[in-house]
Amino acid sequence: MIPKPLASPSPTRPLSRLGLALLVSSAAVMVACCGGGGSDPAPAPAPVAPAPEPLPPTPTPPVAADPVAKTLNTTLASPWGLAFLPDGRMLITQKAGTMVILSADGSSTLATLNNLPTVAASGQGGLLDVALDPDFATTPWVYWTYAEPGSGSEAGLAGTAVARGKLVGDTLQEISVIYRQTPKVSGAGHFGSRLAFRADKTLFVSLGERQKESPAQDLKTSLGKIIRINRDGSIPAGNPAFATAGALPEIWSYGHRNPQGIAIHPGTGELWQNEHGPQGGDKINIARAGNNYGWPIRSYGCKYGDPVGNECRIGGGTHAPDYTEPVSYWVPTSIAPAGLTFYTGSKFPEWQSSVFFGALAGTALWRVELNGNVEAKREKLFESLGQRIRCVKQGPDGWLYLLTDGGQLIRIER
Fold it and tell me: Containing H/E element for 193?
C-alpha cells in the first residue's frame, strides 16, 4: 500500500516544534525503508575537518626606540684607532704615541702602553690604527700604523709604518716594524692609514700619498696605495702583477689620495675603502686587485683655490673607462670620511646591509645603505654631537662605538 503523503503545513499556520520533529522523523523512516539489498544502511561519512587557516606572517619586531649616543669616556687624548680584545676590553690608540686599555664598559682606563716606537706626532701624523691578529687567542700579536720620523739622511722626513708586538698582560713585547712606506717625504699630511685582515689572514694597509699627488700613480712608490702583506711583513702570493718595471710587489691598488677607512665586506670578502677628495669628491671604493682609482688625474672634487662647481672637477670627474669609478661620492662639499665598518649585528635590524663611517668635516656619522654593491640610500646621523668622528666600530655587543677628535668614546645604543 502506498503511504499517504504527509499533509503540507498551511501557509497561514506554522508548524509547531512537535510537528516539525514528527515530520523529520517520518521522513527518516521513509528513507530507511527504501534502502536496497536488505542489508544494513552504510554509515554516514565522517565529517571532514575544515582546513586550518594559515598563520599570519611573523611581524618584524618593532624598533624599541631611536638610537641614542651615550658618552662612556671623555679622558682620551686625540684617540684614533680602536680594537676590541676577546674579553670585551678596548685597545685604543692615542695620536701622541700611546695606547690605552679600557674596561669593557669603557668607563675606566686599566693600563697605558707607552713603550711603542717614536711617532711623528705633528699635523695629521702620529699613532694611527690598531688591529688584532686573527689568531690573537693563541698568538696575541697587536698591529698598528703610525707616522714614522726619518733619521740620518731622512731626518726631517716621515712616512707611514706598520709595527706589531705581543700583548702580554698589560705590556707589549717583541715589538718590531714589519713595513715602511717608501719613500719618506717632507710634510705632515695624508698618512692614511687603516688596517684590515682578510679571511686568508693577510693584512691590508691603506697609505696616503702624503699630499704629493703624482706618486699615487707611481708603482715604484707606496704613496697613495693600498698594500697587502703577510703578518710578518713578507709579500703573499696573489698580489697583482704589474707590467711596470720596478713595481712594488706589495701594491694591491693605487691612485688613492688619503684613505682613512677600510673594511672587509662581510658577504663578498672584498675590500672596501673611503678616502678624502680635495674640494669635494670624497668617495667610497671597492678596492680590487690591480685597479687604478684615478688620483690625481681624475676626481669628482675641485683643485684647491678653484671655485667649486661641476665645471671644475679634476679631469672632468668621470673616471671610467681608464680608471675605476667609486661606489659613492660627495659633492660639492667635503665631509672628510674617517673609519669604516659594515653593520652585521642584531641590535639595529633596520641597519643591516649598511656601511658606516665618521665625518671630520660636518661632524656626523654617515650611514650608506647598500643594495648589493650599489648605494640605495644615505643618511647623516648624530650631527648634533658636534664632534669630528675619527673612528667607528661595531662592538661585540652589537652596538656601534665612535671615537672623536675631542677625546670622547661614544656608544650608539637604544
Answer: strand 192-197
